[in-house]
Amino acid sequence: MRFDVWAPRATTVEIELPDGRRPMRAGQGGWWSLAAAQAGHGTPYSFVLDGDGPYPDPRSRRQPEGVFGPSMVYDHARYTWSDHDWTGRDLRGSVIYELHVGTFSPEGTFAGAIERLDHLVELGIDLVEVMPVAPVPGGRNWGYDGVDLYAVNETYGGPDGFKSFVDACHGNGLGVILDVVYNHLGPSGNFLHPFGPYLTGTQGSFWGEAVNLDGPQSDEVRRYFIENALQWLRDYHVDGLRLDAVHALHDRRATHLLAELSAEVDALACALGRPLSLIAESDLNDPRMVTPLEAGGLGMTAQWNDDLHHALHYAVSGESHGYYADFAKLSALSKALTSAFVHDGGYSAFRGRSHGGSARGVPGHRFVCCLQNHDQIGNRPRGDRLPLTALKLGAGLLLTSPFTPMLFMGEEWGARSPFLFFSDHVEPSLREGEGARRAREFEGFGYVWDAPDPSSEEAFLRSKLDWNELKDEDHWSLLAWYRDLIALRKALPELSDPRLDRVTVETGPLDRWLVLWRGSLCVIVNFCPDSVTLSIPAGTVLLTSDDRVRAGQSGLLVPGQTVVIYRPVI
Fold first, then answer.
1. According to the model, what pLDDT value does residue 94 have?
2. Residue 154 bears catalytic tag
3. 441 among known catalytic residues
């Protein structure tokens, strides 16, 4: 077994093995190495730098005792895969389902999630997006405080557990997208500083220090993150990555890290013979994010589009505080449905400046859009979700939109369990100050910040899905609605057509109703509690709607808060 570690600042590096410490040999570029014949799969080890430590390996594949314990040798080749016939899952035409492993099932493990895959298959899901699985301090966390980025949280089931989950997903026809965080590392258990200039030492975002992507000795730092991405796609058979908050990646190089990563992933996809997707979370509204490399863009397969979420949220909830103020008219929703970005260079009152660029010519499948996600629920003080009626209205538009739709776990049946912000820091200063830090992050959002203590176990347990809700008729009815919409989307080519210039939207007076045309298909959403009568072509065929809808030769009565989808017969 050969051990290698990058530690350019150290004058001596030792490896600590079960039989004692051994000095490592300095090589080129700040790399140190040692061959240890007796070490193999399952051997614990750690590093000592200039007498300080021991520290876990920055590229540790396994941390069986958590972020403060030693690393363990993990041999990827020892796992036996059964997905040999898996050819991948293209993002185009797909429906994504975001989940948090710890709260998706009662067990809170990969094994527990596997037991619920039948539900996702019956729903019509194509890709499962898993929130970050890197090791975190304590036993519960959203995952964005991750460290030891090459390893897998042991609480969920460790590396073999994650491979079993991916294998099971592929066996059920489901692709897997993994959420990864490259813009910062968690504040606890991060031992990168002793090894090298991984971080700049300056505040890169609210969450922590900026990653050194363009400073001295940043070549190896960039490789650290790129090789991490390739590991998930190659060694864990993952089908895509969701890149957290890429606007917080500070990179002034001629070739941005995202463009470099895109080129590497494209090459790997060719070698593996299956499509691999990169989905960026970005609040820049910059179309270059999803412009192909050969056209001068950054080459991301898709990006999250918060503009459609904000416009939908206002339409179904009426909330107009914070950033929702920029979307507090149905005209914003109309623009989002036809142009992707509402902020495409115009003025944003929330930001106090102009924002964004035009997405003209960009196909809709490059925008991952949602009615709810972990941020938009969990960033509310009480972690509260949208009510059933709002979900029915919003889903009617989301799942008939020209974009790539994403659901958040439990949304499809109107889960009432909140999704609260929770963590489990070991250090008293971090644990006791977590709530105050969270409140500061959302100053100016229009909330009265009355949130449960994020460090309490109760916040975590309350966030677990209650699958027994599916026994309730109202929840089951909403689930049937989501299933019908997804099935309709897959059956009718008009609904998966990504061409935004083929989408037409009409809004009614006083923001009461909206009509969306997708080719010959028409989607009517009545947002107000009163009935409205709209003119429609003769011979209309209702595809799916509320049972109360009545169609005539020239009119359609749409009861309050209803979605109607029909096709005129010519």
1. 98
2. no
3. no
